[in-house]
Automatic annotation (TrEMBL):
Protein name: Pyrroline-5-carboxylate reductase
Role this protein plays: Catalyzes the reduction of 1-pyrroline-5-carboxylate (PCA) to L-proline.
The EC number(s) this enzyme carries: 1.5.1.2
Pfam families reported in the protein's UniProt record: F420_oxidored (PF03807), P5CR_dimer (PF14748)
Localization in the cell: Cytoplasm
Location of the Pyrroline-5-carboxylate reductase catalytic N-terminal domain: 5-99
Catalytic activity: L-proline + NADP(+) = (S)-1-pyrroline-5-carboxylate + NADPH + 2 H(+); L-proline + NAD(+) = (S)-1-pyrroline-5-carboxylate + NADH + 2 H(+)
Entry's Gene Ontology molecular function annotations: pyrroline-5-carboxylate reductase activity
Gene symbol of the encoding locus: proC
Pathway the protein acts in: Amino-acid biosynthesis; L-proline biosynthesis; L-proline from L-glutamate 5-semialdehyde: step 1/1
Domain of life assignment: Bacteria
Length: 278
């Protein structure tokens, strides 16, 4: 029988994950989602066939997995409201919230729980996500598999064995979609400067990004080799790549990801400061 999965919060990230699960054949009747928004719950029940309720604690009573999918700023209040129900049931806790450590969540929920912490990214909303996952010591192999199944419903999953590495995951893939969006913006602007209509430049830039990523995923060659394959000696790409390298592109990415990871650490400290038992 399928594990009972309860989503606390039925917003973008939660609906992407349970939508992906259902599309992959997971029984909708084994899924419950909660929200304070009654209209949203009615629509979700009708469209997806899942159970819905505005009572978080009741939704946890029979759950095998509880996915915490509310904003980090309200997570403490939500967890404290769930504490008794979670301690009575002791389900696997899966959090997709940015910046909150497994230990902080465990403390807010009363302690001694199996907690999986995820860093997803927004392309999960179109089934092309990339998530980094970390499990605390209480998570069993079967629970790891379950967490993998949930997050693989919206993309690829990479496990890290040190929670601090989720900062690196944030720097590469959590925040990463924004880097590529910036590149698309810059490429479109550059195309317009060279005379292309904006719509044409955008379509060409986006399709090129999609094509390059698809090709790199399918190829037996690494991205460096694929890049060299485009760079005919003495040709146009060579000039462009030299210009990007001379402009310090690699160093810019190193600096940007360092800054991102540093901010992830700061945010964890800021959000963790409100931990009751610290
Ligand atoms: N790495 C990344 O890029 C991403 C990370 N995330 C993480 O995912 C989490 C959810 O984000 P996202 O889905 O975008 O946010 P949304 O605002 O779309 O979803 C949060 C949902 O929680 C509901 N909610 C508010 N209060 C409660 C409550 N007390 N009990 C139950 N539900 C409640 C909200 O309802 P209402 O709107 O009515 O208040 C809303 O539907 C965040 O913690 C975020 O950090 C998400 C997206 C990407
Ligand atoms: O920018 C942020 O803080 C969040 C975390 C990763 C992506 N968005």
């Amino acid at each position: 029988m399928a594990s009972q999965v309860t989503f606390i919060g039925a917003g973008n990230m939660a609906s992407a994950i349970f939508g992906g699960m259902i599309d992959n054949g997971y029984p909708a009747t084994a899924i419950t989602a909660t929200s304070p928004d009654a209209e949203r719950l009615t629509a979700l029940a009708a469209e997806r066939g899942i159970h819905t309720t505005d009572d978080n604690a009741a939704a946890v009573a029979e759950a095998d997995v509880v996915v915490l999918a509310v904003k980090p700023q309200i997570m403490r209040e939500v967890c404290e409201g769930l504490r008794d129900a979670v301690q009575a049931r002791r389900p696997l806790i899966v959090s997709v919230a940015a910046g909150l450590t497994a230990e902080t969540l465990d403390t807010w929920l009363g302690g001694d729980l199996a907690v999986v912490r995820c860093m997803p990214n927004t392309p999960s909303l179109v089934g092309a996500g990339a998530s980094g996952l970390y499990a605390n010591a209480r998570v069993s192999d079967a629970q790891r598999e379950l967490a993998t199944t949930l997050l693989e419903a919206v993309g690829i999953v990479e496990w890290v064995d040190d929670e601090a590495l989720l900062e690196a995951v944030t720097a590469v893939s959590g925040s990463g979609p924004a880097y590529f969006f910036l590149v698309f913006e810059a490429l479109e602007e550059a195309g317009v400067r060279l005379g292309l209509p904006a719509a044409t430049a955008r379509r060409l830039a986006l399709q090129t990004g999609l094509g390059a990523a698809t090709m790199a995923q399918r190829s037996e060659h690494d991205p460096a080799q694929l890049r060299r394959n485009v760079m005919s000696p003495g040709g146009t790409t060579e000039r462009a790549i030299h210009s990007l390298e001379d402009g310090g592109l690699r160093e810019l990415f190193a600096d940007a990801t360092e800054a991102c990871a540093a901010r992830a650490r700061e945010m964890a400290a800021e959000l963790g400061e409100s931990t009751p038992n610290r």
